[in-house]
Model the fold of this input.
Amino acid sequence: MESQIEKISAVEYRVRVEIPWETVSPRLNAKLRDLRKKARLPGFRPGKVPQPMLERLFGKSVREELARELVDETFQDAVVKHSKVPLTQPALENNDLGRGRAFTYSARFEVPPEIEPTNYTGVPVRRRPAIVDDAKVEERLKAKQEELTEIQPLPEDIERTSTEDGDVWTVDIEGAIGTTRISRKDAQITVGDSNSEIVPGLLDIIGALALADVGSTREVRFLPTQERLRTDLRGQEAVFTLGYREVRRRVVPVLDDEFARDTGDAESIDELRSKYADSVKEEDQEQAEHEARQRLVETILGDNDFEVAPSLVAREVEAQVDLFKRQLAQQGLDLARVGMTEAAVGNQMRPQALFNVKAFLLLDAIGKAEEITFTEEEVDEELKNMAAEGNQNVDRMRATMEKNGQLLLLRAQIRESKILDFLMEKAEVTEAPDPAPEADDAAETAEADAAGAADESAS
Done:
């Protein structure tokens, strides 16, 4: 076998391969002999069809099949011989297989770009100081408050007779919206919490109940709240039989020292707030570092322009689209429900996908230039940390990650992190807050806020 390589662009090559007839002939004859044994033609006994007739009827398809096999068998060896790593399957331009002459074919294929990184040390980069977002501290307190909230029976000496916000009704629901059946047993609906009502508009009915309605069953008819209803159900009447099984009360703890002690994290509410503030600041510090590294990579990419194989970008776009679809599925949605298509999502993801691919390739090239590696001990340590955080068995977790390919990804992440550590150590880091928005941007933001407020007032 002989082969020649031709450079089309920085990321695409053409290989020309020639396989001598002496190699092809036995393979072709063997295929024809095998076909002769199996061929069934009128007027001929099995295995007795003349070879000239076989070649006239089936020769083209046999030669095409053999050509595909020869390409599959020789392409990889041909390109490796020329020190190329193909990223794509060969795109055949011609593959002429004829009797009595060498089989030749040519094919295009993509390769990773050859990058010689420059100007990646001493790069100026800004890193903002970490801040404590009071809103996030309050969110954590409220989340802990919700976690410690209890649903308790109503006191026997309760004086009120009607339902109020915070009451939790256990209801059996049986019925339909139009022709769409809905059935729920022991559904818990919290008065004042629209997220719990199951059918938009049902909360108003539950909120109007008297405590004495426990144990009763009633049929209700109503038009669900349209703007919160699935589009295919809008305009249809809801008819349900509701069984009011039980009513209890959400008891929300007061944010005081006793609450702090109940969390097991602090002895006072001030100490708990302080701990949450430290945690929020630590997370923001990690985010600030991530942002600085992102800016650093963007700067280095600006000084190292190179072409990227389209197949690499296409794969990253596909991965990003799949991730977006999984995120939607976790919310019970799909692309059609949010009015999007895979093509539209892919177009939105393409700029970020291109950046991700170029950043990966450049960091990999820098890692090779600086001989940055990692050890299996570092992998083991990271696995131990991950297992501890997830309260998992480290050996079982390793086996699972090895099986599904996540261990390879973890190793790549560890190496990339070490490359970024190296770049940050060599960078000229300036600690400074994010710049204030430009005057025009601030004016646009204020104008948008004012327009939004006007819309809310009108509604």
About this structure: Residues 450-459 have pLDDT under 50 and may be disordered. The CA atoms of residues 95 and 357 lie 33 Å apart. The chain is about 50% helix and 20% strand. The longest helix spans residues 269-302.
